[in-house]
Specification:
The chain is of the alpha+beta class. The chain folds into 3 domains: about 220 residues, 2-Layer Sandwich (Beta-Lactamase); about 160 residues, no CATH class; about 50 residues, no CATH class. Helix content is about 30%, strand content about 20%. The strands form 6 sheets. The chain has a 7-stranded antiparallel β-sheet with strand order 2-1-5-4-3-6-7, with helices on both faces. Strand 6 and strand 7 form a beta hairpin. Helix 1 packs antiparallel against helix 5, helix 1 crosses helix 6 and helix 7 packs across helix 9. The protein is globular, with a radius of gyration of 24 Å.
């Protein structure tokens, strides 16, 4: 029997309902989570799936989790087939091979039943503060040679059966984390949010009927696929190659090459990372599910950014990486700090398609830092683990400057100063933009961010996780690269540089200064509107010297006005002959 036809108005209402369910699940996590990264940084994602495990609607959170989430749900259902599930069951996994990507990401899949019939799944993933392993935060780079060192690994397991929590499994999780209160609090927040999603999905089916809702799900995915294919057809066909480099995988190691070729043919896209560096004897590897995820996200941003994100959007895209490369490592390779790789795969795909889609691409963003800290808090008389996100500028694009202090490849947020200081032995002494860090261009990149954190803790341990301290964020079409980043301990006369991926110890009262790179510019700097250059000087984004040397704009420091005649003369000497390069490093 064929599925019933859903009229356009009902289809639109059901689609809005599915989106609303995803948002409500995410809001519940956001409001009930215990950890700073979930409650403040929004490092989680949620989605609604149909009864056969296809993603139908996602919440407005990290797009990189979504391709991995589809993979995780398939593996959860392979271990626990749909016919064995009962209302209130919930399957937890964090196995990197099965979809998680790294051990701190806990994926939970919960079925929803209406009148005894399976009508779909609600799913979420949350990055947990600590799951054991070598370093506080479970994201060490140095000294990792397999994922057994990184923490507790959980295959697909029913932690809840018919709404009842399994105390033995919960006890095992609590015994394998340095922060049991946060981890169990976040885990139960995930579970409570899924219960909300389950109830809302049942309400939707009760209102419109199971056959109508399931038919609408099919049509939504099919329409999304068709829209995506139509958008891909508008890309000039061909194979587009690009390469970029991660700084290294620890002190004294070589750069990691990200080589990509993007082939566009008719209505399909193939992304191939052949030629990328081999897997590393460190934590810095990306299992294929996460390499796929951020590749999907880049294509979605360049083709149909405002359309639904679901299974249909992924069907025209294939992603490959050589087995044994650091973008598709053989198990049991480490992968705890794989988040730092996501910007590079995302930006490699965008860089490859820059020549084909110059009006849609953005220059390289400034990259984020994701350090974690551990130690003993003498004021509260307890051990602590603190997770930090330091998000900086985004790359410039055709017609617009980059944004300041925002995530690029995902939708997380900077963790507020007040949240860190209220919950940890931390004082944030500086949180500011770095002058002259943004990549010059007709449209400039976002500025780098500096965050200085003083630690009033004993036995301090830092796991640094930063990038773009060796290879600057690239500019596009004549735009210049942004300034490179640094990590400094105790800024001042006796300061010392800390490697971007170093595991280090710090003393009570030490200040760790995270200085994030600036983002790349777009277009020739000498073509920037002089008034915008003046505004950047007045806003302290750039100095008078940079205005003159990078942009060819002469500003009178007495009147704070542009000297139009001197600017015109200077810019004549800065003109570029011929077309500017597509990429400037």
């Amino acid at each position: 029997m064929s599925a019933p036809r859903v009229d356009p108005i009902t289809l639109a209402v059901i689609w809005g309902g599915l989106q609303s369910i995803a948002v409500e699940v995410g809001t519940t996590v956001h409001k009930t989570a215990y950890s700073e990264q979930a409650r403040e940084g929004q490092d989680f994602s949620v989605a609604v799936f149909d009864p056969v495990g296809r993603m139908v609607a996602q919440g407005p959170y990290s797009p990189g989790h979504m391709g991995a989430m589809s993979f995780a749900v398939r593996n959860a259902l392979a271990a626990h087939p749909a016919e064995t599930l009962r209302p209130g069951d919930a399957i937890l996994l964090n196995d990197p091979l099965l979809g998680s990507g790294h051990l701190p990401d806990f994926f939970i899949t919960q079925p929803a039943f209406a009148r005894g019939r399976l009508i779909g799944f609600v799913v979420n993933i949350l990055h947990h503060t600590d799951v054991g392993g070598q370093r506080p935060g479970s994201q060490g780079v140095v000294g990792i040679f397999d994922y057994y060192q990184e923490g507790l690994r959980i295959p697909p397991t029913k932690v809840w059966k018919e709404y009842q929590e399994d105390p033995g499994l919960i006890g095992i999780i609590a015994a394998n984390t340095r922060t049991p209160e946060k981890v169990l609090g976040d885990l139960r927040a995930q579970r409570s949010a899924l219960r909300v999603g389950e109830l809302r999905l049942v309400e939707l089916v009760e209102r419109y009927g199971a056959e109508t809702v399931l038919a609408a799900m099919d049509e939504i995915m099919d329409r999304t696929e068709q829209t995506m294919r139509d958008a891909i057809r508008r890309i000039p066909p061909g194979t587009y190659a690009f390469e970029d480099f991660l700084d290294d995988f620890g002190p004294g190691t070589d750069p990691l090459r990200v080589a990509v070729s993007v082939t566009v043919k008719d209505d399909i896209v193939n992304i191939d990372y052949a030629g990328s560096s081999p897997q590393t004897a460190s934590g810095l590897n990306s299992y294929i599910n996460y390499t796929r995820s951020y590749s999907y996200a880049a294509i979605k941003c360049l083709t149909d950014p405002y359309g639904p994100m679901n299974e249909g959007a992924l069907r025209p895209i294939s992603v490959e990486a050589p087995l044994g490369s650091f973008l598709n490592p053989r198990p049991p390779a480490g992968g705890g700090p794989r988040a730092i790789i996501c910007y590079r795969t995302f930006e490699a795909v965008i860089g490859a398609l820059a020549a084909a889609l110059p009006e849609r691409v953005v220059a390289a963003s400034s990259h984020f830092a994701n350090p974690t800290f551990g130690g003993f808090d003498p004021k509260r008389n307890r051990r602590f683990v603190a997770y930090e996100l330091i998000l900086s500028g985004t790359g410039a694009r055709a017609g617009k400057d980059g944004c300041e202090a925002m995530a690029s490849a995902f939708n997380a947020s900077n963790i507020p100063v007040e949240a860190q200081e209220a919950n940890h032995p931390i004082i944030v002494e500086r949180f500011e933009f770095i002058r002259d860090s943004s990549g010059p261009g007709k449209f400039r990149g976002g500025s780098g961010v500096r965050r200085d954190m003083k630690f009033l803790a004993n036995e301090g341990k830092l796991t640094n996780l930063a990038e773009r301290q060796r290879f600057a964020p690239y500019g596009l079409f004549g735009g210049k690269p942004g300034k490179r980043g640094q990590t400094v301990i105790n800024p001042g006369p006796n300061e010392r540089l800390l490697h971007a991926k170093e595991s280090a110890e710090f003393e009570y009262g030490d200040v760790i200064s995270f200085r994030q790179p600036g983002a790349g510019g777009y277009g020739v700097p000498a073509e920037r509107d002089p008034q915008k250059v003046l505004n950047d000087v007045l806003d302290d984004f750039i100095s008078l010297e940079t205005a003159r040397e990078a942009y060819g704009v002469v500003i009178d420091p007495a009147s704070w006005t542009v000297d139009a005649a001197a600017t015109a003369r200077l810019r004549v000497t800065m003109r570029i002959k011929g077309d500017p390069p597509v990429v400037t490093r």
